[in-house]
Amino acid sequence: MTQIIDGKAFATKLRAEIAAEVATLSYKPGLAVVLVGEDPASKVYVANKAKQTVEVGMNSFEHRLPADTTQEQLLALVSQLNADPAVHGILVQLPLPKHLDTESVIATISPEKDVDGLTVVNAGRLASGAEGLIPCTPLGCLLLLQDNISDMTGLHAVVIGRSNLVGKPVAQLLLQQNCTVTMAHSKTRDLPGLCRTADILVAAVGRPEMVKGDWVKPGAVVIDVGINRVPASEGKTKLVGDVAYAEAAPIAGKITPVPGGVGPMTIACLLRNTLTAAKRLEAAR
Ligand SMILES: Nc1nc2c(c(=O)[nH]1)N[C@@H](CN(C=O)c1ccc(C(=O)N[C@@H](CCC(=O)O)C(=O)O)cc1)CN2
C-alpha cells in the first residue's frame, strides 16, 4: 500500500518546534521579506510567510515595493536590511519583475542573512560541505526524505530539474546522504528509462504532470516539487505537481501529494533558517 507523505503535518510539527525554541531566546529573530510588484501568487506566499513568522514568535518586516522599483532602489533596501541588527534573515520573493537583475540583487544579500540560501557563498558552502544556509524547498525535501528513509546510502536518486532554487541544491543534499545522484533535465536522453532506475525520484521541472506512472520504479520514493496551476472544470483552476499523481501513486512506495507535500515545508524551512541565522548572528555579537 502506497504511503502518502504528509508535508503539511510535518511542517506544522516543525513550526511548533521552532516556536518552542524561539520562546527560550532572550531576543526575537527578525525576518525581512521583500516583494516587488503585484504577482498574485507571490503576494499570497509573502502574506503566508509574514503570518507564520509572527505565529512562531519572530518579528516580521514586510517591504512591498511597486512594480516599477529600480535596481538601485532595491539594492539600497537590501543594503539597509543587511545593516539592521533587528533583521536576522532577508528574503527577496522570486520571480522579480523582468527589468530587475535577480543575480545582483541576491549577490547583495549578506550571506549570513541569506535565509533563502541562494547567494553564491551559501551555494559554495553547500557544495563543499561547509556550514551555511540551505535553500528552503530543498531542505524541506531532505527533511521529508530523512523522515521516510532510515538510510539513503547507495540509493539511486534522480533529480529532474537543474535550477539554483531547487534541482542543484537537492542534488547536493542527496549526495551528502551518500546517494548516487543523477541530475536530469530537458536535454536528458530517455528520461522515462532513467527515472525507472530511481529509488528516489525528485521532480522539480515546473511542467504539469510530466512524470507519468510508468516512469516510476515500483516501490520508489517520489518527491514532487512542482506547483502548477492548471485549468479545471467549470472555469476553475486547480494545483497539480510535476508528477501525474493518480498514475504514479499506486506504483510508488511513498509519494508527496500536491498540494500538501513539499509546498508547506518551504515556509517552515524558511523559519528554521531564520532561527539558525539569528542564533549564529547573535552568538557572533
Ligand atoms: N525567494 C523565494 N522565492 C520563491 C521561493 C523561495 O523558496 N524563495 N519558492 C517559491 C514559492 N514559495 C515560496 O516563496 C512557496 C510555494 C508554495 C508554498 C505552499 O505552501 N504551497 C502549497 C499550496 C499553496 C496554494 O494553494 O497555492 C502546497 O503545495 O501545498 C509555499 C511557498 C517561488 N518563489
Summarize the structure.
This protein is an alpha/beta fold and 285 residues long.
Describe the structure.
The protein has 10 helices and 11 strands. The model has no long low-confidence stretch (mean pLDDT 98). β9 (228-231) and β10 (237-240) form a beta hairpin. 40% of the residues lie in helices and 17% in strands. It folds into 2 domains: 27-110, Leucine Dehydrogenase, chain A, domain 1 (Rossmann fold), CATH 3.40.50; 136-263, 3-Layer(aba) Sandwich (Rossmann fold). The chain has helices at residues 7-22, 40-55, 71-83, 102-108, 120-128, 136-148, 167-176, 191-195, 245-248, 263-283, and strands at residues 3-4, 30-36, 59-65, 89-92, 156-160, 180-184, 200-203, 221-224, 228-231, 237-240, 254-255. It is an alpha/beta fold. α6 packs parallel to α7 (167-176) and α6 (136-148) crosses α10. The structure holds ligand LMY7XDAE. Ligand LMY7XDAE is lined by residues 45, 91-94, 116, 136-137, 227, 239, 258-260, 263-264, 266-267.
The unreliable regions are none
Classify the beta-strand content into a percent band: 15-25%
Name of the CATH class of the largest domain: Alpha Beta
Q: Output the CATH homologous superfamily of the largest domain.
A: NAD(P)-binding Rossmann-like Domain
The DSSP helix count reads 10
CATH architectural group of the largest domain: 3-Layer(aba) Sandwich
Mind describing the biggest β-sheet?
A: 6 strands, parallel
Element pattern in H and E = EHEHEHEHHHEHEHEEEEHEH
- How far is it from the N-terminal to the C-terminal residue, by CA? 52 Å
Strand order of the largest sheet: 1-11-8-7-5-6
Question: How many domain regions?
Answer: 2
Structural class assignment? alpha/beta
Number of strands: 11
